[in-house]
Amino acid sequence: QVQLVESGGGSVQTGGSLRLSCVASGRALTDYTMGWFRQAPGKEREFVASMAWSGASSYSTDDVKGRFTISRDNAKNTVYLQMNSLKPEDTAVYYCAARRVLWRYWGQGTQVTVSS
Predict the structure, then answer these.
(1) Could you give the CA distance from residue 85 to residue 17 in angstroms, rounded to a whole number?
(2) pLDDT single digits (tens) 7-59
(3) Could you please report the per-residue DSSP string of 1-46?
């Protein structure tokens, strides 16, 4: 079993920054891809970014890619999401997830609120 715990959410104004962290415990995440998803009120959960064990990263849109950076520290079993130039539409609960094939493990989420 893998437990994922997110932290770093909060409330910021438009243009602000936040750094989310996700610590995994229970087993090493060798060969796991780590990802971030988000769910805004009234909307479905959507993919934000992911990073493979090798370090290869993927982002949902060019806009996200230009403002967010995913990184991971395999020695610490931790994945990060640096979010800059935040917009009100980034407001959501952000979830960390892990997969080898399917997104099997999920954290409880951390709230990010961006005010205009």
Answers:
(1) 6
(2) 999 999 999 999 999 999 988 788 899 999 999 999 999 999 999 988 899 99
(3) --EEEEE--EEEETT--EEEEEEEESS--TT-EEEEEEE-TTS--E
